[in-house]
Amino acid sequence: MRFSLSAALVALAIAFAAPAMAAGEPVPGQQQGEALPDDGELSNFVAAFVRLIGVQHGYMMMLQDEQDPKRLESIKRNALDDMTAAVEQDGLSVDRYNHIALAVREDPNLQGRVEAILQQLASDPSAEQPAPEEE
Q: Structure pTM?
């Protein structure tokens, strides 16, 4: 499944309003001395972000249809595991992903760099765009 640029940008805005996978834990602010992401790390962040959209969408559909509380908890645990795997697939830790998400939310320059990467993915059919994992 390929995502349109506008859908990705809308999701990006939503994602930066609440960094991913907080799981009830506060995401610390950009720490003093923590390096801003270079282009490679930012590309990995965008790839993880696109995968997260797919994972979250799939699990939202499952959660909507489920009524059993035990099954709901199981689905939520699986979703968290899959979201963690989606982030770590490109070598980012969940903590680093969340730090980058927070930095992008607060830094217009980083926002522009992320948008440029998304636009490149949307306009270049040969660019590898990760497909969401299916259950």
A: 0.70
Core vs surface per residue 18-38: b (16+ CB within 10 A) or e: ebbbeeeeebeeeeeeeeebe
Q: Is residue 32 assigned to a domain?
A: no
For 84, the domain range is 5-19+40-123
Residue 127, both tokens: 């660019």
The answer as to whether 115 is a domain residue is yes
Give the chain's domain count.
Answer: 1
- Would you give per-residue pLDDT tens digits along the chain (135 residues)? 444 554 555 555 555 544 444 444 444 444 455 788 999 999 999 999 989 888 988 898 888 888 999 999 999 999 999 999 999 998 999 999 999 999 999 999 999 999 999 888 888 756 554 444 444
Tell me which amino acid residue 128 is: E
**Phi and psi, residue 3, nearest 5°:** -100, 140
DSSP characters over 59-97? HHHHHHH---HHHHHHHHHHHHHHHHHHHHTTT--HHHH
